[in-house]
Amino acid sequence: QVQLVESGGGSVRAGGSLRLSCAASGRIFRINTMGWYRQAPGKQRELVAVITSGGSTNYADSVKDRFTISRDNAKNTVYLQMNSLKPEDTAVYYCNAKILPAPVEFEYIYWGQGTQVTVSS
Fold it and tell me: What tens digit of pLDDT does each residue of 9-32 get?
């Protein structure tokens, strides 16, 4: 009923930039927090950045000052601008959102399918 679809992943050289997008679709009453997680091979999934409906943001220490999360509420879309990419940023990036689906106002957590980001040295 509700789904998240990521786009914008790819392969870049160290120091390059990528912009990830995640669009929520379906019967949505309200989207609360939206965020990005990532998972490298053999490692646990970790939080990258999160943004509330009011625009407050939090970042992992490893990406602070390099990544910027933003959202367009009219488009139900969250973005992750990634600058000064490093090889250690290589991972599958997953969109996450806490959403109140219509018509019942109970919060559910949704995940996107993931998009690959590869950074070469």
Answer: 999 999 999 999 999 999 999 999
HEC assignment per residue over the chain: CEEEEEECCEEEECCCCEEEEEEEEECEEEEEEEEEEEECCCCCCEEEEEECCCCCEEECCCCCCCEEEEEEHHHCEEEEEECCCCHHHCEEEEEEEEEEECCCCCCEEEECCCEEEEEEC
β-partners of residue 73 are none
Structure tokens at 114: 């993931």
User: How many CA atoms does the CB half-sphere of 33 hold within 13 Å?
Assistant: 13
The predicted structure's pLDDT at residue 102:
87
The helix or strand, by DSSP H or E, that contains position 4, with its residue range, turns out to be: strand 2-7
CB 95 within 8 A of CB 112: yes
Angstrom distance (rounded) from CA 35 to CA 92: 14
Q: Which two tokens stand for residue 5?
A: 């679809």
CA dist 100 to 2, 33, 82, Å? 10, 11, 28
Place of tokens 């919060």: 107
